[in-house]
Write a structure and sequence with these properties.
By secondary structure, the chain is of the alpha+beta class. It contains 10 helices and 13 strands. Helices cover 37% and strands 19% of the residues. It starts with 5 loop residues before the first helix and ends in an 8-residue tail after the last strand.
Length: 329
Amino acid sequence: MQKMSYLFHLLLLCFIGQSQNTLTETIEANVHAAKEVLEVFPKEQVQSAFSDLDRYRWSNLPVFLHPRKGVNLEQMTAVQKKVTQKLLQAALSETGYLKANWILWLDERRKAEMKAEGSEVYEHYGQGKFWLSIFGTPAKDQDWAWRFEGHHLSINVTFKEGKIYVTPLFLGAHPTVVADGPFAGLEVMGKETRLGNELFGSLSKEQKTKAIIQSTAYDDILTRTAKERHIKEIRGLKVAEMTEWQQTHIKAIATTYFSNFKAAIVYSYLGKIDSAPLTFAWAGTGNYEDGIYYRIQSSDFIIEYDHRKKDIGHIHSVFYDIKEAFGGS
């Protein structure tokens, strides 16, 4: 796959509607927002050491299956919620920021459904059950991190040696399309879904033979620690064997995940598209009812999307930097 030009990168960033903020400006914005957080929270409630091993314990599970440190939205005052939102805005693009908040809203909707169904665990869901944690002391010359996490959302932002690292990033949606109410038709992860389906549909018979690694979709994403077998044993269709149109679609899918963050962060990850050979893998028949799974993978990063076969209308996805998640070693 030919390397994308500098001009193509700039045009791509303009296309996704992001300002050309610098890395330094982004770091400073996060430091400022995190300091505001610490001014309105008791430090022992929201802050831990950068060396705290809990920093690596990410999960998309609801709290009764994965207890969390920090403070959740349900416990926050209005002032505390506002500074939490400012911190999200400091790292996320407008698209990513809105997507994260829509995921919170979807979980509140799911909570109401579960309550109506008589579920005993409905109280562990909802927009109040998302936790904020800060690790270390926010400063331009310090290593520190923050996490915002709950069911179907895990945002991990690490600042180390003057750089920003933003994986693992987990995004989920249930339902995939809202069926009723004032937001009927809302599709939180529609772009990720459509681009993947369009790409698979464009593959020739020979290409599909290489791309399909399993005849049925997986029950869930596979990547949790980047030490799993599929990380080292890369399978699927080499992107170098794709048409130019298909390669552009691969870049578009990857950029959809990268562009949940500020432009300076996006640009730092765009280079990873070219730094190592990419593969595209698919699991399933290609029929919606059978579930859909795809992944884009190199030795540097992996993106997984799973439209779960056991629960159609339920998406899990992850963007994971294999070498530098949580800031690397």
